[in-house]
Amino acid sequence: MEWETVIGLEIHTQLRTKSKIFSGASTAYGAEPNTQACAVDLGLPGVLPVLNKEAVHMAVKFGVAVNAEITPRSIFARKNYFYPDLPKGYQISQFELPIVGKGELEITLADGSVKTIGITRAHLEEDAGKSLHEDFQGMTGIDLNRAGTPLLEIVSEPDMRSAEEAVAYMKKLHSLVQYIGICDGNMQEGSFRCDANVSVRPKGQKEFGTRAELKNINSFRFVERAINFEVERQIDVIESGGQVVQETRLYDADKDETRSMRSKEESHDYRYFPDPDLLPVEVTADDIERVRGELPELPDQKRDRFMADYELNMEEANILTSSRETGDYFETVIKASNSKPKICANWVMGELSGALNKSDMSISESPVSAEMLGGLIQRINDNTISGKIAKQVFEAMWNGEGDADAVIENKGLKQVTDTGAIEKIIDEILAANTAQVEQYRAGKEKMLGFFVGQVMKQSQGKANPAIVNNLLKEKLSS
Amino acid sequence: MHTKTIAEIIEGLRNKQFSSEELTKAYLDRIKQHDKTLNSFITVDADVALKNARDADKKIADGNAESLTGIPIAQKDIFCTQGIKTTCGSKMLDNFIAPYNATTVQKFNDVGAVLAGKTNMDEFAMGSSNETSFYGAVKNPWDTNAVPGGSSGGSAASVAARLVPAATGTDTGGSIRQPAALCGITGLKPTYGRVSRYGMIAFASSLDQGGPMTQTAEDAAIMLNVMAGFDQRDSTSVNKPVPDYTSTLEDSVKGLKIGLPKEYFGEGLDPAVGDAVQVAIKEYEKMGATVQEISLPNTHFAVPTYYVIAPAECSSNLSRFDGVRFGHRCDNPKDLMDLYTRSRSEGFGEEVKRRIMIGAYALSAGYYDAYYLKAQKIRQLISNDFKQAFEKVDVIMGPTAPDVAFNIGERTEDPVTMYLSDIYTIAVNLAGLPGISIPAGFAKDRPVGLQIIGNYFEEARLLNVSHQYQKVTDWHRRVPKGFE
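^ inputs. structure came back:
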């Protein structure tokens, strides 16, 4: 039987507000445990939440960016359950009326096809603290620094049909929230976390299969692996005559498997009800227009512009707009180099991207700035150096040996364009290789490459290849 | 000295008839002498109170006195006080010392009031007789066999016995007005949102409201001047200017249109209480007010509606008392579930547990629509009743409670009868309106309260109307036997 996978994602993005969603405590990551939790975060008796307006602003920004309906009066609700790192015994979230309603996001797949993924809703809520089970010998430590950090939970429609699509959607969203400046995107610190709802059904069947919810998969790689494992598991269950049960499963990255956390029967009754401590959140049409005006160029707009203005293909444009930083870097290189965008694109996607990957760095951490790379390309363009030498210069820049001009100067890499000097080398080479000269003259024109190689070698790569070519042809045919 | 009102004490301090230290000491002595009988206080720190009184005297001498400098008042033990235990009448918080002041406490500190002590109350403000307190029942100074009402029973009894000149209370379904009525004092529940709830331990957040409990309406106006106002730490507090509530006390009530809801004078009302209330209303007619019968047709839904909404909110509000961060924790928990179960079973009393269970049930999947959502719809109908009434009348009057104070132990076995003690007060909370109870005579030798309900943010009118009555009567100046 042929199976079809159905995936929906719930993504928790931590909003980069300075203070928490309902208190004035700082949201900075990595402080000593319980030093960034005030009376409100601790849920002490009598304290009350006060909504952080910036969190609302960021949620609206997201909604506008995905073309979503913004709820004019959204409501905070209490999600009741007991857990030691949940100080009040309830999480303030949104239930029936989330601030962001239906929207959509376009993804591009490896084969170049484009697919639209529906966004069901996005709602504001507070994060819980952390339970620390190590280091306390049979006890659990509670760190409430994270308690009350603002989250925007973005829920997709079950529109994805493979792990690849899920990862593409997640990456696109990851890029978007950083583009619009509402999330730092730091997955190690948990700023961008994903739960996946996964089910399978026989191809062609309309109804969805029973789904499992995979919890807490915090990298693109793990999302792909967790989904693939889960799809295999569900197909195995069904094909061996069993039934998939609705449950929550935890992905274990070490063992690369998912395992059951709790079944539907064991799931909580959260007893949601509107939080009487908070007023409805009102967002007017004017507010929405104001936020729309603040939005930067979005990834899709930037991609389309790159394709039109810089004559890039879809794939190139997608890579160069994968983050706001990459796009900005690329455009700075064009400006600084005063060269064709295509050659700039090749350098950014080739040499630079390779070096970054090798060192596991992001583009904003690159030791070669966009201005430096632009300077290098400019020297290729004005024939100061050849493309081959340029790679050597790039490596030197990467290692901190200064900008392109300094490296060229210090290493004496300037290209030789003086025809007299080149002629001298050619004459020497031709004199030393009479047999090969005969062969060429007898019609073996492929031998030209041999002579070019010899001349370049002799000049330590600095001879201008075009001049070498012309002079060689001239001399050999004379 | 102890029978003076706050207005008179302000005068006395200003004229140097006595010092704050003398005054405070006199009240502390009375607490020492009488509170063994009444049990109206949970915590009294005499040393701190006297120190603050001496500081106040210095301020007065230096000419830096604020409006209440040197005047002792009591805070209901539901308001968090920095450095002083705040128990909410519960074993759960027997060891709890808040690291902050409730906004109401801070405001009284800011105007120089001296905290005389924290008053006893029904556990987490859940009760109508002050019998659910972990710290024991409070006795009614008019008859120590009788309850003082609740949940602000300690505040009501202490003011009635003149152990303090005034106190704060909180009112979720009648918890200021009903004990004020049963103890023969003045108690005002302001409009929802008029007084900050920050630092006031929540029972039912959409209904809770703090207010003054005093001998006179004039004193309530002085207290409300301190308490009222927007607080950015309470999102449900209303950003609306606060008038000087004392400035309109002397306005005439001539032409005042009084509505008497027929539902408040029917079955269930003790005839002796009804008679006393009718006599009080006659006084208003003598002063030139007009009276008409009105109808609040959804009145009979108020108690059942309240007993869905209040427990639902409380079941969630009280989840934070889990033994993890503060409050009572059981000995040697064997695991997390045991920690929760025993800490909460041991820390909460019967009535609190009953309401948590009712509330959790009302909110649970499959029942939410039938209970909570329906209750919210009826709440709207009840508000509409009042809205229509206030198109015809200026104020609504009736009895505060259907009965005078009942005896201790008389209703503890029958929660539903106990809940009916608040039948005339609860609808006011559901609608979010202001209401006041003032002393209006006696029935069976126990005090009767007249309840006056006003339109939103019309506290000034309620205080004015009450003050005018108190100018022509002296019920509010009567002091129970043994406490004169």
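Chain A has a mean pLDDT of 93. The CA atoms of residues 422 and 463 of chain A lie 7 Å apart.
thumbs up if we can close this ticket
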